[in-house]
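Long-time lurker, first post. I've been practising inverse folding by hand and with some scripts of my own, and I keep getting stuck on stretches where the structure tokens seem ambiguous. Below is the full token string for one chain I'm working on. Before anyone asks, I'm not after the true native sequence, just a reasonable design that respects the backbone. If someone could post their per-position residues I'd love to compare against what I wrote down in my notebook.
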């Protein structure tokens, strides 16, 4: 298997589905459709929907059964980025090498575009679940995973603690809470939801959950590292924003060398959690390497 080709193949499938599901008709509120589509198609790698589809296939599911949910998770992720970039949050001008949503459409429309993507994601999942009697129970359980991970006990909760911790000295446990909720929770939910819809048994779900937790935390620590030593052209955004916003990061608390060591430990743990599944686990293992050991 050529990993990069397989990754691009999955991303292309997601992009086509997103274009299909996202509204684009002419109507009085068509500006919100434009703003939603602007950020969704601003160059994302589709990592969370790819993780979801891969988890479903890993346990024997079909990609067609998961596509609406995969698109929904990308919409939720994109909404979080739009809001995260706002002046009241991280105040970023660029995302993925393009102007952030509020720089193009203004703060009011950017807020509504994020709200629109979040709500529309659940509309899409509910509609799909109601049309699939065979997998209705699984899809309801998957929606619960996604709702919890993106809500006050997941991504939003992590964002809250991140905001109130700015300019403050926090301990390592608080930082882990921020990273495990603000970033890792949605990655874990992507994999768990995909596995649940695909029909995973308890053993498979446990293994994939362990894999997801290690990848999710490793992914965010790598982001922390890249904010210090990354290439702005490759990242598509300004480096050093965490320092500018006085945010606590792994390198600021533990140091750069320890942070890199932690990433490698998390990668090894992610591999050990699924390597016994042999060839079936190859894509996930290579994806973990790709996510948590990006250039630094």
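-- Answer (accepted) --
I ran through it position by position. Result:
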């Amino acid at each position: 298997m050529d990993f990069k080709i397989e990754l691009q193949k999955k991303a292309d499938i997601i992009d086509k589905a997103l274009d299909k599901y996202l509204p684009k008709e002419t109507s009085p509120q068509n500006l919100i459709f434009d703003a939603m589509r602007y950020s969704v198609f601003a160059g994302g790698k589709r990592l969370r929907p790819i993780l979801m589809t891969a988890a479903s296939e890993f346990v024997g599911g079909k990609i067609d059964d998961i596509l609406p949910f995969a698109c929904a998770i990308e919409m939720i992720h994109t909404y979080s980025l739009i809001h995260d970039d706002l002046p009241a949050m991280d105040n970023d001008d660029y995302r993925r090498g393009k102007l952030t949503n509020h720089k193009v459409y203004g703060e009011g429309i950017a807020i509504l575009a994020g709200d629109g993507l979040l709500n529309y994601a659940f509309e899409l999942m509910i509609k799909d679940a109601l049309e699939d009697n065979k997998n209705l129970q699984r899809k309801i359980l998957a929606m619960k995973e996604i709702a919890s991970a993106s809500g006050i006990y997941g991504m939003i909760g992590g964002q809250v603690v991140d905001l109130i911790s700015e300019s403050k000295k926090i301990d390592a446990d608080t930082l882990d809470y921020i990273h495990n909720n603000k970033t890792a929770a949605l990655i874990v939910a992507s994999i768990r939801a995909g596995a649940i819809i695909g029909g995973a048994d308890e053993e498979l779900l446990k293994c994939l959950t362990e894999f997801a937790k290690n990848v999710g935390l490793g992914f965010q620590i790598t982001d922390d590292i890249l904010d210090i030593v990354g290439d702005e052209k490759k990242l598509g955004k300004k480096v050093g924003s965490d320092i500018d916003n006085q945010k606590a990061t792994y390198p600021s608390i533990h140091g750069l060398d320890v942070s890199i060591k932690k990433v490698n430990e998390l990668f090894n743990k992610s591999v050990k959690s699924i390597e016994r599944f042999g060839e079936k686990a190859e894509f996930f293992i290579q994806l973990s390497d790709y996510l948590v050991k990006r250039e630094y």
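A couple of notes from the structure itself: Residues 3-292 form a domain with the Farnesyl Diphosphate Synthase fold (CATH 1.10.600.10). The longest helix spans residues 202-229. Happy to go over any region you disagree with.
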